[in-house]
Design goal:
Blueprint lengths: L11 H12 L4 E6 L7 H4 L24 H9 L3 E10 H4 L4 H21 L4 E6 L3 H5 L7 H5 L20 H8 L8 E2 L6 E12 L5
Helix pairs in contact: 1-5
């Protein structure tokens, strides 16, 4: 595939990535244009160091070690499509201890889709997921193996960088897919409960498409 060609979203190979995300447990998945991704540098400042974020400085996927927003914007400019997926979650679960298990599922789905895009389709793929990998996968460990000892991450197969860490506007991300979202949840008319969501995405470069 030539660099200036655009891979149509309806290509069966890309549609297969949607099916994969759904089969892995996502409640919804969409292929959307990567140009619609909204990145705000000021959002990264909410992570710390004078804020309450528990993941600040503890992993390569969180500030100040994560890719800076300006560099992330350059990355998105090399990508045409983005596979965006979500898991619907009742707000009481999202605000409780169950959140970590749900966030781990998001990272696992993200990693699976990224691997499929890379290995099966020959794309260059970049996965990002909600939540700090240190909190989700190494919470009991004293320090990050990568940052503290310069060793490979023991959870590299599933852990992905935080989407918040690179300045992604989550509200705009949900709007891009047409998913109702509010910080305090959205009323589900079927259950009468407040519903939230957790999301991840995989950016796709169309180099070497098989």
């Amino acid at each position: 595939m030539q660099k200036n060609e655009t891979l149509p979203a309806q290509t069966p190979a890309l549609q297969g990535l949607i099916r994969l995300a759904l089969n892995c447990g996502a409640d919804a998945a969409r292929l959307v244009s990567a140009t619609g991704l909204v990145i705000r540098e000021e959002l990264v400042q909410l992570c710390g160091p004078d804020r309450a974020c528990p993941g600040y400085g503890l992993s390569p996927g969180c500030p100040p070690h994560a890719l800076p927003p300006a560099a992330f914007k350059l990355l998105t400019q090399r990508c045409t499509w983005m596979l965006l997926f979500k898991i619907d979650v009742a707000m009481e679960l999202l605000l409780g201890p169950e959140r970590k298990a749900i966030a781990r599922r998001v990272h696992q789905i993200c990693a699976t889709v990224e691997d499929a895009a890379t290995i099966q389709l020959g794309l260059t793929a970049h996965g990002y997921a909600a939540g700090s990998c240190k909190e989700l996968f190494c919470g009991a460990a004293g320090g990050c193996t990568v940052l503290t000892h310069g060793l490979p991450c023991p959870h590299a197969q599933v852990a992905r960088p935080s989407l918040s860490a690179v300045g992604v506007d989550f509200a705009e991300l949900a709007a891009l897919a047409g998913w109702p979202y509010a910080l305090n949840g959205v009323l589900d008319p079927h259950s009468g409960r407040m519903q939230g969501l957790m999301a991840g995405f995989v950016l796709l470069e169309e180099t070497g498409m098989r």
